[in-house]
Amino acid sequence: MKILVINCGSSSIKYELFEMEDESVIAEGLIEKIGTESAIITYQATDKEELMKTAEILDHREGLNLVLRLLMDDKDGVIASKNEVAAVGHRVVHGGEFFSESAVITSEVRQAIRKTVDLAPLHNPPNLLGIAAAEQQLPDAIHVAVFDTAFHQTMPKHAYLYPLPYVLYTRHKIRRYGFHGTSHKYVSEQAALFIEKPLTELKIISAHIGNGASVTAIDHGISIDTSMGMTPLEGLMMGTRCGDIDPAIVPYVIAKEDLTLSEIQSMMNKHSGLLGVTGMSSDMREVTQAMEEGNEQAKLAIDMYLYKLRKTIGSYIAAMNGVDILLFTAGVGENSSYVRQEVCKELSFFGIELDQSKNNIRSKKTREISTPNSKVKVLVVPTYEELMIAREAKHLVDQQ
Ligand code: AMP
Hints:
Elements: E1 2-8, E2 13-19, E3 24-32, E4 36-45, E5 51-57, H1 60-71, E6 85-92, E7 103-104, H2 107-115, H3 124-137, E8 142-147, H4 157-160, H5 167-172, H6 181-195, E9 203-209, E10 213-219, E11 222-226, H7 249-257, H8 261-270, H9 273-278, H10 284-292, H11 296-320, E12 325-329, H12 330-335, H13 337-345, H14 356-360, E13 367-368, E14 377-380, H15 385-399
Parallel strand pairs: 1-6, 6-8, 9-12, 12-14
Antiparallel strand pairs: 1-2, 2-3, 3-4, 4-5, 7-8, 9-10, 10-11, 13-14
This protein binds adenosine monophosphate.
């Protein structure tokens, strides 16, 4: 069975075609700058040369049409007809309280996704555009929505509610939803497989730290708390996002700096975090290098980043009354041995002990980086959200 996974941003389509027999990737690529005369198209069929070109692509429908033409191309294509695509897995960022699992897309499902647009105004509209385009281009395929928020719908009420007037929850559904759910679910399953124990017997803390970052407490396979909130702005210090701050800072800065609401929103989302503190870069590689070269502001930014991450991990040990596995994933988590080392160094009270030589090994595979004596197993687990989306879609196709 072949499954196409698509992830639509406001001006981009990321796509990956899987053969689910062996979960291999047959082709993948990206279209960027949709809506311009010079959209950038990359396409890579496995074992063939990568193609790259620019073309005028007005909207997601045209973009997806081009993706299908590339997949069926006489020379570089990998399928003979559209009918070979049994299902399309769509990444949808926000499922609100409507979805606690992936769903076959029907008119009711589309309607529910539309109702959550207010909660994710930047993400859900392009996700809906992608769904409409794919349904038009592949009318015979089964379309499945896989939500970033769904995995966290298991959180108990005391963890997902904010201590605001309760009416804000009943009236506007203001609550913690959490994000990166597809990734947290995938890496926690991989971690359980790796240590050969059932997920249902484990307490796992999953640190997904990339440009966006969140930590999740996964108790016996179930998300019981996560650091992102109603939006992906809450929680950890990130590349460009501030994470938790005193909410009273917002009106204060608006008054002092004469900012509009949208300016302060942009400041907190795009000009804060590592970028805001260093004034230089949101990229952990560049900030780490600057720190190594003696840049004190870079050192301060990383110390702040590590402190917040460590405090959040510690709070989830408390939330679960223990932890069996601490895992790191995503760009920073998978690649920065320094971040892993520094976080774990200050968690020794909990019996976490890192093996430095294992921590320094670079690998694309799931691996253990703790010592045999460590009370908590520390793992690096590469995330693979696209594969998880394909698996979810296959699961629903199999049930049809
Ligand atoms: P992601 O959002 O998961 O793609 O992660 C992207 C981030 O990973 C980049 O912004 C970098 O800061 C970080 N990253 C990638 N490679 C490394 C590395 N070798 N060391 C530190 N950070 C890295």
